[in-house]
Amino acid sequence: MEKLWDFLISVIGLLQFWVVLPNPAYSWVFTLGRPTRYLGHDDGWFGTGFHLKAPFNIEEAAPISTHEEWADLAVQSIATSDGHAMTLQGTFRYKILADDSAKLLSYIVELGDEDKAVPLAFQAAIASVAAASTLHNLTALSPDDAILEAARRNLNRYGVKTFEFRWIQRSAGRQLRLIM
Fold it and tell me: In angstroms, what CA-CA distances link 131 with 15, 79, 110, 117, 147?
């Protein structure tokens, strides 16, 4: 009986011929895997974000929220250019811009629904700046602007606007190796 319900729910999902975009969200509609239409939360029927699409997965919508968000990154251990080990953790404030539909399309196609892609790009920005800096530069001079610039360079082509970077943890550490 449970399999019958699962089947009926999946059939109802196939018959869905609409998509509703909340405020603020934008979407691209893919018809048989090719991008065809750009949708917004402020257009559609009666300007409510209600849009019609072809059922049976002929057309699929890929909505992207454009809320301003904070990305809290995981702790990472990085060796500086002078050989010291550092434990670093930071947070970024960012937003996905929808004013350029081509950048939003590249975000959807290249990054997809991957929730970890943006935080990993932010971690790469911290790692690249930390690996090129000395221990003194990371602790005393605080290269926040360089990290922010590296993050912007990594994510600009996807329409991600990075506003701010803050340190959560920044401490010198030791690397221990277990020899067996």
Answer: 52, 6, 27, 21, 11
